[in-house]
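Comment thread on ticket #2218

A.B. wrote:
> Attaching the input chain for the structure job we discussed in standup.
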Amino acid sequence: MTLPGEGRQAKECCICTTPLTHQEAGTIGDIIVAHDLEKRFEDLIAVDSISFGVRKGEVFGFLGPNGAGKTTTMKMIQCISPKTGGTLEVFGMDVDTHQQEIKSRLGVVPQETNLDPDFSAYRNLLVYARYFGIPKREAERRAEELLSFMQLEEKRDVLIEKLSGGMKRRLIIARALINEPKLLILDEPTIGLDPQARHLIWERLRSLQAQGNTLVLTTHYLDEAERLCDRLVIMDHGKILVEGTPADLIREYAGNDVVEVERTEKVIARLDELGLNYDLAGDMLQVFTDRPNDVARDLLEVCRHEAAVTVRPATLEDVFLRLTGRSLRE
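C.D. wrote:
> Ran it. Output below, let me know if you need it in another format.
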């Protein structure tokens, strides 16, 4: 498969889209196991025969452009969108026949802010606890502990409309934990937040994992996925393109370093002479190489005063863009 991009030489890379076997998709004791999972909407195949497993106690990520199928997959895990093919088990239970049992053990953090605006932060937690039949005294204890855990004690009696965006996201996470779930599903957990709020939520999510919780998340922040996820999949057009740890995926599909240089005719000619593959990124060229200093030195000597050259570590974002392309998805 040729990697997306307009470069005259695009690096070739094999992407395995063959569904995993049932044994490869998950092992005994995995929290989630999917095999040939499919979701169709009339003529649209939103999720196309994917297989994966989520291990107990890990942070697992679903990445992909808009329309890739990741949110649909999450909805099937939550038992709010029925699958149309394959198998899907959560906590060892079939999502078709044990929806109530599965939902009772899940915590869900939706992308949208859906807190009740008529209640305070504390009351939002108490009211939500009723859906799980949690006794009043126990609900009150858990609500107080969760407000403290998410650093919201001072906002206990404040109405939702008076909370900042970061406070609302933290309260939504607290609400998702009220039933003491063993699996937490997070859809864009830090969307629209400033760096301080994002880092606080990252810290809290890592703390939850350290306590033995399993987390599954989607995010468009690739640095967030690289920082939080033990393993992840990148999806596109309903299929899983790759699966692995962030470090392994970066090493395999982007290498250790990237040389970025301004796009000029002389630079392109020199890269062609050296037989180096490159991708176009706007008015820049990106060279993925295991000898970045040599490449940068050569370009600086040949293209002196004509093009700026920088060397940086490869990131998960490089992998994502190389596999899914740079075209805007709506």
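A.B. wrote:
> Thanks. Noting for the ticket: Residues 256-313 form a domain with the Alpha-Beta Plaits fold (CATH 3.30.70.260).
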